[in-house]
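To the wet lab folks,

You asked to see what we're planning to order before we commit. Fair enough. Below is the target structure as tokens, and below that is the sequence we designed to fit it. If anything looks off to you, flag it before the synthesis order goes out.
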């Protein structure tokens, strides 16, 4: 069964590439272009997750008075800070691309 799945996926990909070549489209044109700011994005998201965990801990400890069973502050803060990191990444990339 595994062999059949692999065989079908390989042959389907081959057929797709052959039909693209027949129509004059290069398969290399459809490949994603490398993102030069990918490491910046991943670093900012990692920092956002770390800060979110820290602020989630602080929120749970000092505001919620140590309710250890509730993971909601961690989830909220990680989501908030990771989203803020992605928005910050967008503005940094836009400023770099403008010159």
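Sequence we intend to order:
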């Amino acid at each position: 069964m595994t062999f059949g799945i692999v065989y079908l996926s390989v042959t389907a990909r081959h057929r797709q590439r052959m039909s693209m070549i027949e129509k004059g489209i290069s398969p290399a044109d459809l490949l994603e272009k490398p993102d030069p700011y990918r490491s910046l994005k991943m670093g900012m998201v990692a920092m956002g997750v770390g800060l979110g965990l820290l602020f989630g801990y602080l929120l749970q400890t000092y505001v919620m008075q140590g309710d250890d069973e509730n993971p909601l502050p961690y989830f909220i803060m990680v989501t908030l800070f990771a989203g803020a990191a992605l928005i910050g990444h967008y503005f940094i990339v836009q400023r770099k691309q403008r010159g």
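Structural context that might help your review: DSSP finds three helices and no strands in the chain. The two ends are 54 Å apart (CA to CA).

Thanks,
Computational group
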